[in-house]
Design goal:
about 240 residues; alpha/beta; Purple Acid Phosphatase, chain A, domain 2; 5-stranded mixed beta sheet; 8 helices; 12 strands
């Protein structure tokens, strides 16, 4: 069985298509999306429609919930007003069918991969889509976030950072972000969006388990062009965080 795991697309259909092109010709039994599909990018409706076409199982992320309530975020910093205009614009692009699709997203997803191998999918943690799991998260913190959850593979998104980590007998996996990957030149510096899209393939056959974390090249010029074509507010400001 082969599972393609995607997360944090954030309205970037160009990046999603780059991932799907990378998968062309490789048999995939199931697509799993770990949330945050539409907010903060120029193609929110296109992304949701593509997920429907794929028959993708999906969990709800924090920004998906924000799309459903159609409200701005509370003030956080000087960029909040501009970001909120983008958020509300993204919500306005979603059709009633798109909104129904997002309402059908689950809090968690459980899959049997064969034998006793199981997958538990979530956004932040099984407890909350706002939780954060990092490579450096202390064991006691992980224990609180994963308390009561049992699976061979614990698969989450939210941080936009790829991750493979042992936790007891389980593996914790983050496929990274399809549409808004984040890199930092140095600790405590602002992040930027690099020219790639991230995802993962999980395979299980004859008792063999494989985890393949992937980065595929992304045409940043095409992403930026879509931002300006779409009518998304503050497109120039949004595009300034992308590096080619």
């Amino acid at each position: 069985m082969r599972i393609a795991v995607i997360s944090d697309i954030h309205g970037n259909a160009v990046a999603l298509e780059a991932v799907l092109s990378d998968l062309a010709g490789a048999p995939i039994d199931q697509f799993v999306c770990l949330g945050d599909v539409a907010e903060a990018g120029p193609q929110p409706s296109q992304v949701v429609a593509r997920l429907r076409e794929l028959g993708c199982l999906a969990v709800i992320g924090n920004t998906d919930a924000q799309m459903l309530i159609h409200e701005p975020y509370p003030p956080r910093d000087a960029d909040t007003p501009r970001y909120n205009e983008i958020v509300l614009w993204c919500a306005d692009q979603l059709t009633p069918v798109d909104l129904d699709t997002i309402r059908d997203f689950q809090a968690t997803i459980e899959l049997a991969l064969g034998g006793e191998t199981t997958l538990l999918g979530f956004h932040g943690s099984p407890r909350s889509y706002n939780d954060i799991i990092l490579a450096a998260s202390p064991e006691d913190e992980l224990s609180a976030l994963l308390d009561g959850s049992h699976a061979t593979l614990m698969v989450g998104g939210h941080t936009h950072r790829q991750l493979l980590r042992r936790y007891g007998q389980a593996l914790i996996i983050n496929p990274g972000s399809v549409g808004l990957p984040v890199e930092y030149l140095a600790p405590n510096t602002p992040g930027y969006h690099p020219p790639w899209a991230e995802y993962a393939i999980i395979s299980h056959a004859c008792g063999r388990l494989g985890v393949d974390l992937r980065r595929v090249p992304l045409d940043v010029k095409a992403v930026v062009q879509e931002a300006f074509k779409s009518g998304m507010p503050h497109a120039e400001w949004w595009a300034s965080d992308w590096k080619q």
